[in-house]
Specification:
The chain has 332 residues and is an alpha/beta fold. The protein has helices at residues 2-31, 50-66, 81-88, 102-111, 119-122, 147-156, 171-183, 195-203, 215-223, 271-285, 288-295, 306-327; strands spanning 39-43, 70-74, 96-101, 123-132, 135-138, 161-165, 187-191, 209-212, 228-232, 259-266, 299-301. It has 2 domains: 39-131 and 259-327, 3-Layer(aba) Sandwich (D-Maltodextrin-Binding Protein, domain 2); 135-250, Periplasmic binding protein-like II (D-Maltodextrin-Binding Protein, domain 2, 3-Layer(aba) Sandwich).
């Protein structure tokens, strides 16, 4: 009788421990439900430009929706490639994300013989974020006021006209290279680590021309007379510079170099995490607030599914690889 009672006590004790263990395991799993810690969003350009502004908007949207701290880390360099590589090499757990740009996702694969990451293999698209229109700007001292005048000056002074961009391999850089290949002129590229730095040197007169993707400060400087707007680099005119004709309107039909941005994660990030991030970010991008905020930098929100964003990356990579090969554009 005593032995039976003792055995029964052991069985009950074991059952209790098993129950406690299951409860503890359940608590750990619940605690680890995504997101359970700080999320980092890597912006591959310096603060102040359109990539940074969009990245911070996305970070806030994620933080507000998921009730978690989201920090932004600016990791500039190599036309966005350094920051993109950091995302590609991060743990695929949803806690390191990045803002990918046309430069690092679609231009770099055709421009560089070797990249430290492979877009299709190492990165997972979440959603496109926005599309921005760019413009060619000039210092007031420049001896030209439109694209025709700029190209005539470049032809008369081969190799002497420099243009600034936000970095090697960016859409701004390719717009300048593509234009000079079409026009048959010799322009000198001066790369910077971001839009803000390029604009500062343009305002100071250290360079006469700059190709910019952020039209917020550009429009203000043009209106105040501190800069001259030469042309818009996208297919249609920009709302912030409605009186400035496009490159296409000034003798180069079909010229269209928009700058697009999107949210990316390391390849292998769980599909449910990708789905969660896509849902909260696209909801935010569809808001009137997003449209208003993006319009201030000459951009438009562009929410998509992960599959649609992946398709855009593939199509744009093919397009820019052809442009780079035809124009014989080389990294500097």
């Amino acid at each position: 009788m005593t032995q039976h009672f003792s055995s029964r006590r052991r069985v009950l004790a074991l059952a209790a421990l098993t129950t406690l263990g299951a409860a503890a395991t359940g608590s750990v799993l619940a605690a680890e439900a995504y997101p359970s810690k700080t999320i980092k969003v890597i912006v591959p350009f310096a603060p102040g430009g359109p990539t940074d502004i969009m990245g911070r908007y996305v970070a806030k949207a994620i933080g507000d929706a998921l009730k978690q701290t989201v920090v932004v880390e600016n990791r500039a360099g190599a036309g966005g490639n350094l920051g993109t590589d950091a995302v590609a090499k991060a743990a695929p757990d949803g806690y390191t994300l990045g803002i990918g740009a046309i430069s690092s996702l679609a231009i770099a694969p055709g421009l560089y013989a070797k990249l430290p990451y492979q877009v299709q293999k190492d990165l997972a698209p979440v959603t496109m974020v926005g599309i921005a229109k760019g413009a060619i700007l000039a210092h007031p001292s420049a001896p030209f006021n439109d694209l025709k005048g700029m190209l005539a000056y470049a032809k008369a002074n081969p190799g002497k006209l420099s243009y600034a961009s936000s970095g090697i391999g960016t859409a701004n850089h390719l717009a300048g290279e593509y234009l000079q290949s079409l026009a048959g002129v010799d322009l000198q590229h001066v790369p910077y680590k971001g839009t803000a730095q390029a604009v500062q040197d343009l305002l100071a007169g250290n360079v006469l021309v700059s190709v910019e993707s952020s039209l917020t400060s550009a429009a203000q400087h043009v209106q105040s007379g501190k800069l001259k707007a030469i042309a818009v680099t996208s297919a249609s005119r920009a709302k912030l510079l409605p009186n400035v004709p496009t490159v296409a309107e000034q003798g180069f039909p079909g010229f269209d170099v928009p700058t697009w941005f999107g949210l990316i994660a390391p390849a292998g990030t769980p599909k449910d995490v990708i789905a969660t991030l896509n849902r909260v970010v696209t909801e935010a991008l569809k808001s009137a607030d997003a449209a208003e905020r993006f319009a201030q930098i000459g951009a438009e929100p562009q929410p998509t599914t992960p599959e649609q964003f992946a398709s855009t990356i593939r199509d744009e990579t093919a397009r820019w690889s052809q442009v780079i090969q035809r124009a014989n554009i080389k990294p500097e």
